[in-house]
Amino acid sequence: KMEKMTDLTLQQETPIRVLHRRSNAIREKVVHNMKVEREGMKDNIFKLLVSTSAGTYVKEFVHGDFSRTVPNIGSLLGCSSADILALDVEEVELAWPPGGKGV
Fold first, then answer.
1. pTM for the structure as a whole
2. Which three-class secondary structure state does DSSP give residue 75?
3. 72: burial class by Cβ within 10 Å (0-12, 13-18, 19+)?
4. Residues 47, 62: contact at Cβ < 8 Å?
5. Neighbours of 39 (CB within 10 A)
6. How far apart are CA 101 and CA 31, in angstroms?
7. Taking a C-beta distance cutoff of 8 angstroms, is the pair 72, 63 a contact?
């Protein structure tokens, strides 16, 4: 179950959609936790709330970017593919100013 997975380490290659402006590299990112909401959804659709480390390519975590992000939602669910219908950033945790006490 995805909700039981915490601090999941991802290996993310630079996404194809940004290769024209970023160097190709493998970056280690972390999905700290996930929550699945299915209420009112069809069988193959769900809302996924994720908390990740800074710089995680969330879209690529979902669809895998041709296996350039491992693991991804498709591989975790044991299915061939997964995709996004909508993506919203609901919160950013950021201590500001840097080195300060925060807000």
1. 0.87
2. helix
3. buried
4. no
5. 6
6. 25
7. yes
pLDDT tens-place string over residues 65-79: 999 999 999 999 999
Amino acid at 59: K
* Sequence-distant contacts of 87-92: CB under 8 A, at least 24 apart: 87/58, 87/59, 90/49
Give the integer Cα–Cα distance in Å for 72 and 78: 10
Q: Is 93 exposed, middle or buried (0-12, 13-18, 19+ CB in 10 A)?
A: exposed
| Structure tokens, 51 | 């908390």
| Phi, psi for residue 32 in degrees, rounded to 5 | -70, -45
CA-based nearest residue to 38, from 1, 10, 9? 1
